[in-house]
Amino acid sequence: MSGKPSKIRPTIQAYHIATGGIYCPFCREENLNTPEPPVEYSGGYQQRVECTSCDAEWVNTFKLTGYISLINEEGEDIL
Ligand SMILES: [Zn+2]
């Protein structure tokens, strides 16, 4: 990592979550790589993310918030 600020500000964290993590929280560009698949972590998942614009690296965390059925009320596959 190249000297990027390590302190996470709550407003930037909230923006990162609200936008679904599609922007770099440091430079706000969309040039992100996820070099590894998500791994289980504390009842959810985490995934390492790299920004190719500013070389920042961080870990996104995910928690289960619900589910969507793949079968409708008539028993038909939705997807
Ligand atoms: Zn960046």
Describe it.
With 79 residues, the chain is an alpha+beta fold. It has one domain. The chain is 11% helix and 25% strand. It has 1 helix and 4 strands. It has one helix spanning 10-18; strands spanning 32-33, 39-41, 44-51, 57-63. Strands 1, 2, 3 and 4 form a 4-stranded antiparallel sheet that branches. The structure holds zinc ion (ZN).
Ligands present: zinc ion
Anisotropy-based shape: elongated
For the CA atoms, what is the radius of gyration?
Answer: 16 Å
- The count of strands amounts to 4
H and E order? HEEEE
Strand content is 25-35%
Stretches where pLDDT falls below 50 for ≥5 residues?
A: none
Structural class: alpha+beta
Helix content: 10-25%
Helices, strands, pairings?
Layout: H1 10-18, E1 32-33, E2 39-41, E3 44-51, E4 57-63
Antiparallel strand pairs: 1-3, 2-3, 3-4
How would you summarize this macromolecular structure in one to three sentences?
With 79 residues, the protein is α+β, with helices and mostly antiparallel strands. The protein contains 1 helix and 4 strands, in the order αββββ.
Which terms would index this structure?
11% helix; binds zinc ion; alpha+beta; four-stranded antiparallel beta sheet; 79 residues
